[in-house]
Write a structure and sequence with these properties.
single chain; 505 residues; alpha+beta; Nucleotidyltransferase, domain 5; seven-stranded mixed beta sheet; five-stranded mixed beta sheet; 22 strands; globular
């Protein structure tokens, strides 16, 4: 028997914007245990957003221990580990964290974006990387900020890392960056692969701080003795390079054939479509997919689920108490409140709480509630947030897909935390006016991680298109035709609202 034949579990780890999840799956792709820990974002200055990498690692350790303690998980059964994450740029020195992870909502690199457009050229960067020069989304402007403002930190840096790369480093003591994430660094060559010497030279980035690029399914290393003692994992367990959370979630949604697309709504919201050739489309994020000869085009709205979390934390004291009294989660209570508000509420929400990427690409934009009246209820505000996020994704879809491709899409799978909300998924179906598959397993990121991990070690029961089985079991939400005209009118106002006030930001 081979080593992998004696194993029957896979571990997926996802480092998100507001929390980390670790989930164990069997070789049938069924989740057998899971743990989740929240952590807070750090805002040292206005428009700065950071995360403490030690919190990522602590959350991973606690999650794994929880699975061991509660579900009696035997970690010696784990055949391989896959890790995904959100975007954050951190600096790693020799056995130490040099600086926190600078998150995707961070807006500090304003001058660096301008400098890069002058010294690299937005058109040249686009022709090489398939992406435009924008702060927050990519590592390059952030690295330039450190060079300009904290060169002492760059001097102490061995490699810059993304959250999943940091976790892999803690597990294996090896540096890495996965191919999809390198594709969203603004320093890669989309057509030829690898780091772009031209961009690195023009941007004056020290090449020695760039980690080696691995394909998502390539093994970076094995769990070390030190990491095994810290986590409860078994020493020698292989760890693959993993992927961007968006890529993992999309893969788990069953997206594997060219022109397939899926929506994922977590802290941020993403619509992702894949093809067998690189995308080169303005204001669309382009990157390699998790598997060979496939490429992803992504439109992302920065403030999706996090908008609802912000509203919960800021104005939800009574909601917490009501949820406690009813014996349900606070989000389920918010779902119930939303159901009390009718679609014809005049409230419109622009979910631009920390600027916005797709499709307006305006870092200065901010959130807006429009149409508040004396009759506006708490429930109306919750519905407006859910509708605003759906409007934003609809706006992204219009920008991402050609009309012909949009019309050819049948049911669109939707996953992430939103899959827990029947009413929010129905709002998406009504606003997009197309069937939505509410995935039965909302935890798409970790499932995508183990699909990649299975491929890494040759587990044939979990193929790259395994996610299609998940989609087939999903709950089909059909659009309510009665709301079509209402939501089309409201969507037109949504787009016009930003245009009419954008000069005020």
């Amino acid at each position: 028997m081979t080593k992998t034949q004696t194993k029957d579990l896979l571990l997926g780890i996802d480092i998100g914007t507001t929390g980390a999840k670790c989930s164990f799956y069997n070789f049938e792709g069924q989740k057998v245990s899971s743990g989740y820990q929240e952590y807070r974002m750090i805002h040292p200055k206005e428009d700065w957003t950071e995360q403490d990498p030690t919190k990522w690692w602590t959350a991973v350790k606690e999650n794994i221990q929880l699975c061991i303690d509660v579900d009696n998980i035997d970690t010696s059964r784990v055949a391989c580990i896959g890790v995904s994450s959100t975007n954050a740029v951190m600096l790693m020195g020799k056995n130490k964290i040099v600086y926190n992870g600078v998150g995707l909502h961070d807006q500090r690199a304003v001058q660096q974006e301008i400098w890069l457009k002058e010294h690299v050229g937005d058109e040249r960067a686009f022709n090489i990387t398939g992406n435009n020069i924008v702060k927050g989304s990519f590592a390059l402007p952030t690295l330039r900020w450190f060079i300009d403002n904290r060169p002492d930190l760059i001097d102490d840096t061995e490699k810059f890392l993304i959250p999943n790369g940091f976790i892999i480093k803690k597990l294996t003591d090896e540096y890495s960056i996965d191919n999809p994430r390198s594709g969203l660094s603004l320093m890669n060559d989309l057509k030829n692969g690898g780091w772009s010497d031209e961009i690195i030279e023009k941007a004056q980035i020290p090449k020695d701080i760039l980690p080696p690029i691995f394909k998502s399914y390539e093994i970076v290393g094995e769990v070390t003795k030190k990491a095994a003692k810290a986590t409860g994992l078994c020493e020698g367990t292989p760890v693959c390079a993993g992927a961007i959370d968006t890529i993992s979630a999309t893969l788990a949604s069953g997206v594997y054939a060219p022109l397939d697309a899926a929506i994922t709504i977590g802290s941020s919201g993403r619509i992702c479509q894949i093809n067998n050739k690189p995308y080169f489309k303005q204001k669309v994020l382009s990157t390699p997919y998790a598997f060979d000869n496939l490429y992803a085009a992504v439109q992302t709205t920065d403030n999706a689920g996090i908008s609802l979390k912000w509203f919960r934390d800021t104005f939800g004291k009574m909601v917490f108490q009501d949820a406690l009294n009813a014996g349900i989660s606070v989000y389920e209570q918010m779902n119930r409140l939303c159901a009390k508000s009718l679609p014809n509420s005049h409230l419109i929400f622009l979910p631009y709480l920390s600027g916005e990427k797709s499709p307006i690409w305006d870092p200065n934009a901010r959130g807006v509630f429009f149409g508040i009246s004396l009759t506006s209820s708490y429930s109306d505000f919750i519905r407006a947030i859910m509708e605003g996020v759906a409007f934003s994704i609809k706006h992204c879809i219009e920008n991402l897909l050609d009309t012909s491709n949009l019309n050819n899409l049948s049911a669109v799978p939707i996953g992430g935390g939103i899959a827990n909300s029947d009413i929010w998924c129905q709002i998406f179906a009504d606003i997009l006016q197309r069937p939505i598959i509410q995935l039965s397993q909302e935890e798409t990121e970790t499932l995508g991680d183990i699909i990649i991990a299975a491929h890494a070690i040759g587990i044939k029961d979990i193929k790259p298109d395994f996610g299609k089985k998940l989609a087939e079991k999903g709950n089909l939400k059909l659009p309510n035709k009665a709301t079509k005209d209402l939501y089309e009118e409201k969507f037109a106002k949504y787009k016009e609202l930003y245009k009419s006030i954008s000069h005020l930001y």
